[in-house]
Amino acid sequence: MGDEKLNNQIAEYALRLGDDALVFGQRLCEWCADAPTLEEDIAISNVGLDYLGRARMALQYAGKTLGRTEDELAFLRDSGEFRNLLLVELPRGDFAFSMVRQYLLDEFELLFFAQLCKSKDDTLGAIAAKTVKEVRYHQRRSANWMQRLGLGTQESQARTQAAIDQLWGYMPELFEMDELEASLLQAGIAVDRVELHSKWLDIVSAQFASANLQVPESDWQVVGGRKGVHTEHLGHMLGEMQFLQRAYPGLEW
Amino acid sequence: MLSAASNCIELMPQARFEMNQRRAQSNAAHLWDLLDAVTDPEIPVMSIWELGVLQDVCITHNQGSQAVTVVITPTYSGCPALSVMSQDIISALAKAGYENVCVEIRLAPAWTTDWLSGATKNKLRNYGIAPPDSTTCPQCGSECTKLISEFASTACKSLYRCLACQEPFDHFKSI
After folding, report:
1. Per the CB 3.0–4.6 Å rule, which of A120, A182, A216, B15 could disulfide with A168?
2. Which of B107, B150, B153 is facing A57, going by the closest CB pair?
3. Other CB atoms within 10 Å distance of the CB of residue A108
4. Number of structural domains, chain B?
């Protein structure tokens, strides 16, 4: 494989990881000043900040090859050009919905970034090494919330279960490989997502079982984020996130 | 029998040892010293060197002009203090007459609280923050404390409460 082709593939991979983190970070920050308690308000914003930092590292890296700055990538692309997973762009919903999404993602990311640390690409490996440390305390908090919500009141249990049911069909996309990732896997750069699935399911099932929550039996699934086919929600989110740069091009703080 | 703390040799991680070596063998010793005045903007008792953010300093000479490169590493990936620290580095060196300064950010090896020395941890404790390996109350010294939240005033800290003196306190997370 030529160097140029490989570099383009790595940039596309970094763009995917960067977009996942950017879009999710934005969704988390929507809770700022709106969370149920002050401590949770600070916690969600802090987690959001970790995602924003991760997004910057990945988009800077992707941008080097793509010839665009991190800000151009974040603020001047339309929804069809975003490569994030559908899961992260869904509106934040209620607190149970946001925490279930966080938990499902945290357990996935623990496995994913532990593998990516071994990447033959030094920069991706370095980003993963920083990320995995942060995901550890994200997961401690979100797993704790699964217990508190599942074993709390009837209301909290019902809302948490409803969130799991609504989110379940978005999970298969996390474990999907396409030609690009398969090719990078072959080169020792990308992670084998398929391989992570059974371990992730075991961990999540055990956590749910101990918190009076059920793994859904439904088999619906939606995918498309990696190809730029998004839900209607992403465009609305970008409308807000990109407003300043769209209205006042080149604006700086 | 050796038991006093002053008789013990502190173990340090390889990466911290390498940082210390880089500083000891540097041709820019005076610049490292200058940068000891740059502190974490949120914890002003701790310098960026003690924190482990400052990785390397070097001077290069090219046709009579000199350029300084300062290498730093982020603590948390989204830490907003990093850009403040970069600015502080540039202005500290500018004050000493170094105009041509480039601050480079290096991600590997990933920053860890293991790079904080015993002396630095004591500084944190005296400042009112429980250091990474301890959740003892920095106010009254009680070990009877309780986690309130994984997150506190900044991303690098969690929030505890002392069950003895009832005061809340920050704990520097161990990562």
Report:
1. A216
2. B107
3. 24
4. 2
Amino acid B78: pLDDT: 86
A153 min Cα distance to partner chain B (Å) = 21
Q: How far is CA B106 from CA A123, A126, A152, B73, B121, in A?
A: 10, 9, 44, 5, 24
At A126, which amino acid appears? A
Within 110-169 of B, beta carbons closer than 8 Å to A belong to 110-112, 148-155, 159
The residue out of B114, B133, B150 marking a domain boundary is B114
Q: What are phi and psi of B83, to 5 degrees?
A: -70, -35
B161 is a domain residue:
yes
* Domain CATH code at residue B75: 3.30.300.130
Q: Please check whether residue B68 lies inside any domain of the structure.
A: yes
Question: Does B5 reside within a domain?
Answer: no
Q: Do residues A11 and A62 lie in contact, with contact meaning Cβ atoms separated by under 8 Å?
A: yes
Classify residue B93: in a domain, yes or no. Answer: yes
pTM of the model: 0.92
SS3 B103: strand
Lowest mean pLDDT, pick from A10-19, A128-137, A164-173, B4-13: B4-13
* Band of residue A1 on the pLDDT scale cut at 50, 70, 90: low
Q: Which long-range contacts (CB under 8 A, 24 or more apart) does A154-158 make?
A: A156/A96, A157/A212, A157/A213
Q: Give Rg (Cα) of chain B.
A: 18
Tell whether A128 is within 8 A of chain B (Cβ).
no
Whether residue B128 sits in one domain with residue B109 = no
CATH class of the A3-247 domain in this structure: mainly alpha
Residues B110 and B136 both lie in one domain: no
Q: Are residues B66 and B98 in the same domain?
A: yes
